[in-house]
Amino acid sequence: MLNQHKILRVLQLISLLKQEPAKSIHQLGAIIDTTDRTVYRYFDLLRELGFELQRDLFNRYSIPAGSGEGGVKFTNEEGELIRKMVLNFAKNHPLKDSILKKIYLASETTIVSSHLLKAHLGRIVEMLSEAIETKKQVVLKNYHSLNSQKISDRYIEPFAFTDNYRALMAYEPTSGQNKYFNIERITNVELLDGTWVNQDKHALIKPDAFGFGPTGEEISIHFEMSLRAYLLLKEEYPLCSPYLKKIQNSDRYELKMKVNSRVPIDRFARGLNEEMNEHTD
Length: 281
Description:
This protein has helices at 4-18, 25-31, 36-48, 76-88, 96-102, 109-117, 119-134, 227-236, 263-270, and strands at 23-24, 54-55, 60-62, 136-144, 151-161, 167-172, 177-182, 188-195, 219-225, 244-246, 253-259, 276-278. With 281 residues, the chain is of the alpha+beta class. The protein has 3 domains: 4-115, Arc Repressor Mutant, subunit A; 119-201, SH3 type barrels; 219-278. Strand 5 (151-161) and strand 6 (167-172) form a beta hairpin. Helix 1 (4-18) crosses helix 6 and helix 2 packs across helix 3 (36-48). The model is unreliable at 94-98 and 104-117 (pLDDT under 50).
């Protein structure tokens, strides 16, 4: 059974090998913080999963474009389970073995691994994964809150990640609420000795495409934008992609969807000045 830390490292390795230039075993081990011997073991796993590894004349390795992406499809049942298993540590489901072999070939792999490849964020995700697995309380050091516009330490009980590891789901005892914390706004993580004491209050609440949980009322938004704004929005908030489309007979694009908070989209639009215009439907 692959544990969470191994899954994260293998995802990082896949992303590194798909990016030019090719890299040596020692370089790969240094980047993902593991030994050369472990990198070779991960190579065996990648080959088993269907990835082709190329080695050049200087003993540097890479994964050629298209390798490992041939036609793997998840059923609806497997698709739902994979989210729960990777993010919430499902251990005894009968589908787990077949899904673990497919996880690296799923369409979300590139997004996840690119996000985790940033050394600082990867380390934060690993520490939070450990806290979730051992049911430990943590302190998010110097968390930058978009809502309050403040930087402060947050004492929480983390229990899951959102899709793509973009945010952490946690219960905050001081406010008595389940909240989402953006991974990129966490400066550091302090693991505490204390274990969860509020597990009965932990609740998974589906966030919107910008990572905001329900506030009691959904807000409809409709924006028109340039190609540049369209590409930047997809890059920064990939979960918006299903709601973006090109306007017929035009070089413009539009976003129509419902959100739980206007804060992220308003901030994004202000940064692009005239490249985004809001429609008042």
